[in-house]
## 1
Amino acid sequence: MSYSVIVKEDCSTCQLVVPVIKQLKGDDELTIYSQDNVQFPSGVSVIDDTQLEYSWHRRIDTVPTLIKFDDNGEELARVVGWEKSEWQTLTGRPLGFDLPDFRPGCGSKSVDPGMPEKLAARFDRDKLQSRELTISMEEDDAEACYDRGWSDGLPVVPPTAERVMRMLTGTNRLPDEVIGVVPPDLVPCTIEKIAINAVLAGCKPEYLPVVIASVEAALQDEFCMHGLLATTYFSGPLVIVNGPLSRAIGMNSKGNALGQGNRANGTIGRALQLVIRNIGGGKPRGVDRSVFGNPGKYTYCFAEDETNSCWESLAVEKGFSETASTVTLFAADGMQGIVDQKSRDPESLSRSFAAALRVVGHPKMIMAADVILVVSPEHERIYRLAGWTKQDLKNCLNRLLTIDGSELIAGAGGIAEGIPEKLAGKQLPKFREGGLNIVRAGGSAGMFSAIIAGWGASGTIGSVPVTREIK
Amino acid sequence: MTILMDPTSERAPENRQPLPRPADLEGKTVGLLDISKPKGNIFIDRLEDLLVQKGLTTKRYIKPTFTRVAPVELNQQIAAECDVVIESLAD
């Protein structure tokens, strides 16, 4: 049987128990580790733990901590702080009769703010497998990241081991878990590599599960990330987050939800793009052949506003419970606004929506691109007051967007673009079945809604929106 | 010194690589940069003779002084006007 005790001089409880420690040490079965001064306690031999290695490996969060070991060195029990009866029970001997019965301990130096990730980087480095790159004193860290091609054009956070370790505290998943293969280079993607790119993007650790779920969704075959990357079309991946986690991490689903200024919205979407760039090797004017791209290819991520909505959320529509947190990936172009400030009934507003949705891709393009219609609270109110469900609105829009083929054929209206002439006279839907998606988001004032058009290759020939639960 | 964790697939070498070199100079404009070291112009003159004999287009540039890095404007001008550049060092 043996004991160890971890102390620091800068702790009044540790000072208090010095006589007890000396009594135990006298029996020569106690090893003392000091976190801040190897002369403390004085007069006894003390092991220097100012580097906190022992404290880290023993997961000490309070000093003093007294640990009891069996003859094989296995930990049997521990007590933290000073509680006379517990120390007596642990050691099986009378101790500290002249001391108070109880004094709480102090925080271990190994859990000082910022210290756990420093210690993890120092002592658990073998848990990381990524190559370490040495940046010389003469190089600026931020410039070094640019020079190595890791940036989307905006500054990135240099991924030191400490930052990567801190990022990994956001998930219980092991760093070496492979979650899929990233196009276009078809590289196995580990949690660790995602975490490094989340650091680059500026994520907090609490965002990491959302980033991981986004990458998992993007790597599903039906999402067709390779084709979406390589296409000459405008699109890139959009992440829509649903459920309580979106609120817990402070995502913006309200005013300026599709714009700048929210760290979670900004960095989660960016992390996904950096994963494709850095792990998959997908770079603009490389495999990414987009004619224009769109501003959302820096980052494209927002939360659906589920609070006080009369509609079920996108996640619930996809079969998840209201308490689940999910990401839905959509192959998205930029955003097109719809302004209707005069409609006061759902039929009129729906006709506005339909007229605006008609032009997705091209007024004659049908069953090619899917769409996300982002309805603002002021527009949603009109449907709420009339008792329309989200499905009622979808049915109405699909009816209004059933178009006579003669309007769509090549040459109609003096426009060479169009569908084959044989389809003249047929009644044809603008969107494929299930291709029209609706979410509620945006600020509370303004009778505007937004169209996020999809990639011209949807469904089985291209991309299908993919929803994954965040774990 | 800073140690950074590699965010990439690690397929590229650890050290940064120079940009890929052109397979040949056919149809290329060759910039000739005299860094203002003594006799650098003689070296550049001879190179230019050889390049012109091969039917290539050349453009001449001079750094104000060899003791300092080239002005940004000169770098930008060369990058905009030439496909490759040869820089002379002489004494």
## 2
Amino acid sequence: MIPKPKQKRIKNPSKSGRPPKSTRKLKNSKPNKKSLLSMHHDMLLIRRFEEKAGQLYGMGKIGGFCHLYIGQEAVVVGLQSVNEEQDSIITSYRDHGHMLACGMEPAGVMSELTGRAVGYSKGKGGSMHMFSREKNFYGGHGIVGAQVPIGAGLGFAHKYKNDGGVAMTYLGDGAANQGQVYETFNMAALWKLPVIFIIENNQYAMGTSTPRSTAGTDLYERGAAYGIVGKQVDGMDVLAVREAGIKAIDYARCGKGPYILEMKTYRYRGHSMSDPAKYRTREEVDAMRKQHDPIDHLRDVLLREGIEEAELKQQDTEVKKIISDATDVALGAPEPTPNELFTDVLIEVIE
Amino acid sequence: MSYEIKMPALSPTMTEGMLSKWLVEIGDEIRSGDVIAEIETDKATMEVEAVEDGIVTQLVVDEGTQSVPVGKVIAIVSVDDNNEQTDNGKSNTIAVGMSEIGNERELKTQSEGVAKEIQGLKEVALLPAMNWDGPVRNMTVREALRDAMAEEMRCDEKIFIMGEEVAEYQGAYKVTQGLLEEFGEQRVIDTPITEHGFTGLAVGAAFGDLRPIVEYMTFNFSMQAIDQIINSAAKTLYMSGGQMGCPIVFRGPNGAASRVAAQHSQCFASWYAHCPGLKVVSPWSAADAKGLLKSAIRDPNPVIFLENEVMYGQSFDVPDTDEWLVPIGKGNIVKQGSDVTITAFSIMVGKALEAAQELSKKGIEAEVIDLRTLRPLDIDLIVQSVKKTNRLISCEEGFPFAGIGAELGMQVNEKAFDYLDAPIMRVTGKDVPMPYAANLELLTLPQSDDVIKAALKVCYSEEDS
């Protein structure tokens, strides 16, 4: 006989109350200096983390696939600055930035990249498969597009439990052509699920540019057939991202259903570390870096707001220290013990 | 001149039905296309239309009669001789929805064969193996599955069911009948026909702390969703270092139904059993179907629950309690014997038992093991039995190549090689896509005769020639 696992009782969904009221008043679309600085810190943390990850990959300390988020930092940082504790986050394999923005420990993430026992997945997941239930981060998914219905399922669970949560579901411009994405749009709209689909359009699905792979490149319109509201946003401007996020999250949280945010962004590095990126010119990348860098942009805003250059420098020093410490942990920690090979395949049921 | 109207077959696996209502009376003039009766099958209530004009002269079967076999004469209609089209002078037969085939043997479909097997077997096997001495209720596999879900849903509000036609239609095969009424549309959810999407959505809901039951109208359609089942449901616990459990049940009919051809007739047991991170269950009896489904729903892991459409309408005794649980991972000796071990699961258990009865008449006592769970496989039970009988035959409906039998044979080879007195044999479906024609379908599917032949061979019987 199998004992029944302990389960938390939840309110009967059929008797659940009304969805929470608009959160618009709770969030100020004009962030104060403190939150501007905090966003600058988080973007810098991601940038430096990814640069270090790139280095470690080159040294052979990180194996397999490693997809860097450099250039796209404003997207996740802007959205994370406006969502709430009960919201869940899910993304694809370009996931290091999302994890750091969720508040996951850099040392835990870096240790997973180096395949160590103290990594978030005990070294069994690697770059593409990391999770933190504590931070409501649901991965880290390696199959293009697979996280999209799963994200809608997280939204379904928020609605079923009536916990007021919204599922922040990230996908790329490549995934936006996957069939399961449209199956998901249909169900999410049909059932008015609290899901934000964030299409991070970095303009290249691996080596294929959006115009070469996609009929109708305005990806925010992809939900129109299902009646899903979509908005295109400058994903290199963290303040624009934040503002669009407030509207979208508010919409989904008060029960109106899903929302699509197309974030026009750009990745500076190749698709993965092994991508020579011959499909675009050096000039194109340099132009983006020089004219649209999301961190430079926020830095200019901060300076205009009267923040001292020294304070930003101080922040950079702090971030470098965090990354350096995380790297020390990730290189010093032991690999998983061989007996970990057979654990976590199934949850054991005690008879 | 007159016509006989026969009880129609209204689905591929229907063998009988209830004549719930006559919509015509004796003496009524009917025209082709008129609805003349309502027939309730185990799946649905259907209307029967007249296919010829005429006058009703006799209603042979009374309204409300249960279990009217397919093919039985239910009414006689006289036809105005002036309109007579046929000239053979004999009374003609009209069985709506059924074509007449001359050869009686060829007409024996999969489901009819099974119905016969089961009728003869009740006393042989079931009750002793059930390990229950309390009160029992006789019910179909279909009802047992429904009761399992309903009982569990009453205890845990996190459990919901989603799939195509599970709610308002009451289940394509009526397995979810009554659930919408009891649990409401928040917990019994009709999905669009998008297996890939709703499977992923259910997996996400399981990650989000709910306990979904996903019904596939048939497991053939799970192939649309197999990436989400394997890559998301089965692997994420491991890839997350144990953080992300996925308590979910994927269930629905598996294997061959009847006359639905290649794309709708396939056994997925070995496909899913291949993958770590899943449990794979495939019950035969109603008692096991209920007890195993309840265990599957309570299990914190993803469970593939392979049912069989042909078995849905078969009745068995089931313990009359809400706490009847059959553990996942345990096989069951449904008939004891000393001469040869025969393993089977799902519908093949009935065929193996039928073979065992015949073998008994020939002096060979077969031990029949119902595997019940394919992953984790109860290999100890099989090895113990083989050590006693020194012979093994593995039965399954699926393809032979890399099937369950291949795995069983290898494991017994590794664990009990010295005990074997004969090569291990497999009785499987043929290595072809399922054909449509009745005779070819019958040839494709393994029958009890095949099991008997294999047993005679491994027992080196003189009859094997």
## 3
Amino acid sequence: MPGELSEKLLDAAQKKSKYAEVRFMELEGSGAAYRNGSFEGGAYSRSYGYSVRVLNNSLAMSFSNSENFSDLLKALDTAVKRSMSPGKSQIVTKSEGKKEWVVSGSKKVDNVSLEDKISMLKDNDSLMNSLGSQVRMNYISDRKVKQVFLNSEGSEIRGEFTRVSYFYFAGILESGEFEQSTGEFGSTGGYEYFDSINLQERISNDIAAIKKAMSANHLKPGKMDVVIGPEISGIVAHESAGHPTEYDRIVGREGALAGESFLTGKKLPMRIGSEAVSVIDDPSMKGSYGFYVYDDEGIRSRRRYLYRKGYTDEFIHNRESAARQGVAPNGGGRSSSWNMEPLPRMSTTYIEPGDYTFDELVEGVKEGVYIKNFTEWNIDDIRFNEKYVGKEAYRISNGKIAEQVRRPVIETNTIKFYSAIDAVAREMEFFAGACGKGDPEQAVDVWMGGPHARLRDLYIQ
Amino acid sequence: MDVNENILKILRNKDLSEYVVATSVTDTDQVRFSASSKDLFNHWSEKSAAIFISRGRKIFSTTISNVAAPESEIDRAVSILNTLPENSNYMGMSDSKHSYGSLRKFKKIDADIDDVASTILHSALDSGSDRAAGLVYNEFSTVYLDTQINEVEYSEGGLHVLVRSFAGEGTGQESTHLGFDSRRSVKNLEKMGREATETAKLGSKFSEGKPGKYDILMSPYLVGNLMTYGSSLFSAYSVDAGMSCFEDKIGQKVASGMVNLVDDPLNFNGDAAVQVDEEATPTRRLPMIEDGILKTYLHSTSTARKFGTKTTGNAGIISPHPWQLNLLPGKESVDEILHEMKHGLFIKNAWYTRFQDYRNGIFSTVPRDGIFTVENGEITGSIRGIRISDAIPSILKNIDKVSREQMNVKWWQEIHSSFMPYVLARDVNVSKSF
């Protein structure tokens, strides 16, 4: 049976190292796609294997998907040999004891037929076509994950969960002009999630909005007040609060890849915005796409304030980065697969809600813009200089939503953005995403979203 | 093939039209380093099989870990296949029998990656950087590929080295990839650390950039990044899906006459070299743009049949892709090109390239690791806070000069292994943060 060699492998590993971990992970995924009126195909994968991490003079890991113990010993010996070389050797070795957790939802992934999934894809493709979208892609997938984490300090954490996700791309072409949109939704649990989000209404509204955007005028660039929607407050929280507070980035471990952080070398805590701004990362939010009870290093997950009332607060840690800062790990060690090292990662990242309604935010703007969601975006590698291009956006005049405008651009920096926020709404909405990091690059499931927020006097292009 | 025999025995009895079994046996090592020491050593020892099956226009893909006892997973795949609708875009796999007589065999490159990592890290630090980060990979896979009519075994891999150096707020990055034929020794890579530090030092004193149209001298890394992100636009899949700015452009001028772009899968100086594609068609050097004229899209057998042409050996069966791009060199040296510039920018690298409009190729990307102002042929300073916010078709048409120097470039997911020169592009739109 796959995984049955975990304990035996740990026994061998701890005899050859100061500290040892064994992680066995099994991933089973299925998906199907529909493109431009045609079924595209289906896919199923089952992947499992062991990772072993050892500490001697340095840290080393080996990954193998063999169920032959002599192969695993060979992989272990490679790691042990390399761990005798000099290198960094800090890691928190704590144990959380023996724990189990399971999340599978009410409409379990095994109980939803492929026919039903394809029917959903087909219906959405037809809907998009009827609304005038010539370029269409719909993709549905689910995943089952089982994991055992053991370490030489006595940890034995067994977890099982399922996740479901839906992605669409819509494009409208008229007279050489093109507008495109993507939507991504997901949850940890089962297919009951899709009963709660009214996907068809979302798709209809989205396509109607990009269709109208094609004939909308651009805004005259200048400083103005801005109301941002949950999709934008979510991507901003993810990119410019979540990533720069991953502690491995702050100490330079991702320096040649996704980069460091604008917080690297700074005196902390550091003011990053107005008092209205707190940003939270919360893997314990039930139903979220980034939900887990224990992380992939066997540490209990919990909510953490990344920014609190305009200042940096806590950082996202795995066992290794926590040791570098000299604090306890806080459940941020995530790995996308058995053959990937756990890194400090986000889960569900959002600006903490305030007391306002959306209408109150808009009523407080004399002349400005409401940017509901975004299309193109990017940010520099220290997570400071960022750009978000509005997809659906409207001018605000005398406290009321006015005509639609096309592709307004927020191109600013992290501190200017958070410093401009003066009010945050109370309602939240979330969207799914895949966050990439590490080399080999590993994408982990996250939720991004949050409340509407209002920014004063921001330059819009 | 013996490795796949258990799987093939089962597949032959499933009344399938076509099948592909690609079992990869991987033996890869990696060293990561940051600050002034090594972070982690990683070793991967894996064996898994990717399987594609079809019955008529019904298609299904699966990946399995248990290559030795695959019955249940294959049974599951075939039972799912039976329930699927047809893919009306699917036109079948290659039905050509190949002999593969000239296929070359390789072994894993013999290199001490700990030593390589130490050499590069210390060359960066000794050159005056505050700190450096990077990694060294030695990748090797043997792939056993069987279809219903072809069988072939080949090797993939190479040595990949990356270093990024930090000096104040300046950064510099160098990377390379060495294939099985690379004549450069690992020791010659020592200069990468020094060059990364030199760039970082040059960028440590900077001013804020200004938006506008600029002539930009693009380094091979920046060109590689734009080509990596733009490469999907050449795929017949993207064209068919309506997501390419090159739709209906075969035979038309899509770039300046300076641009000659080939897919170069048999160039074993690079680590993305591959001798057969995913349906076992032998790969070949493929001209994609000649003197600015678009010659072909990238095809598998299926997309080629739909487009009324022949496969280019670029399967992905459903979604073809390039293997190893090569933007052919020009005649001038990069120093000559720089010397002739009146007013512009020299940008060494970029990341986070994202499109707001695939159809028209409209994107922005964030320059990094060396953004310099150029006045009258000289580098005069360093700037930050800018973006290239333009469109792929415009940049291709505005390429005015291509250097005779080329580099093997590769970096993370941002630059796929490729051979790129320096290029001078005119009137590129630059935006900035406010």
